[in-house]
Write a structure and sequence with these properties.
Layout lengths: L13 E3 L6 E3 L3 E4 L4 H7 L10 E4 L4 E2 L3 E3 L7 E3 L1 E7 L8 H4 L3 E8 L2 E2 H10 L4 H4 L5 E2 L4 E2 H4 L6 E6 L2 E7 L7 H8 L10 E3 L7 E2 L5 E6 L5 E6 L9
Parallel strand pairs: 3-15, 5-11, 6-18
Antiparallel strand pairs: 1-2, 3-4, 7-10, 7-16, 8-9, 8-15, 9-12, 13-14, 13-17, 17-18
The structure holds manganese (II) ion.
Amino acid sequence: MNASLPVPVVAQPALPIVGREEKFPVRRIYCVGRNYLEHIREMKEADERDPPFFFQKPTDALVSDGQVPYPVFTEDFQYECELVVAVGAAASDVSADEALECVFGYAVGFDMTRRDRQRESFKRGLPWEVGKSFDHSSPCGAVHPVAVCGHPATGTLALAVNGQRRQQTVLEKMIWNVPEIISQLSRQYRLMPGDLIYTGTPDGVGAVVPGDRLVGTIAALEPLVVDILPVSPHPVHR
Ligand code: MN
């Protein structure tokens, strides 16, 4: 280690865009805490009538090449397959009716979670960052422009580990749909081009180990394939 000027500039994370040479530059990563009834029930941690809440992951937690090292500081590393909204225009305090105007496209993403740390945080009333917002915790697939995929509001969301189906639902089961999520989030933050919104996961979450291959599929989007690599004590950003 040798810190001296000039301090190197770290490149902005970006995602490929289906059918385009340009990349989608990622600004912020927002996540919805609870958005499918069966997942709230399996977690047993919330009143089913609670409104959803939002949390963030650091932008450089994004993984665009499907390679996720098993993280330090957990013995219960879990997947959550989610529809990801890619924001392409600024939006502040928008209604659900006008919310979709700011959407550039959609992708398949995994909200990777240190479940043991998240449960401890919940039990002790502490912030969730240690369980949610760590290096390599946001693998995401290519962004499909709305012109390519429309606004997926129906269809299957599924995740398999080593070929075994673990999660399966339909997008219609979201408690809060995409326009409602954008509307609510835009009252808390000014959404900007480059923002990603992970829209919550259904039931069936579970742990993975190094060597596992995760495949997430949502409606007609290209599947997201993620390989869990051996523990990397000092993750190197690519
Ligand atoms: Mn999630």
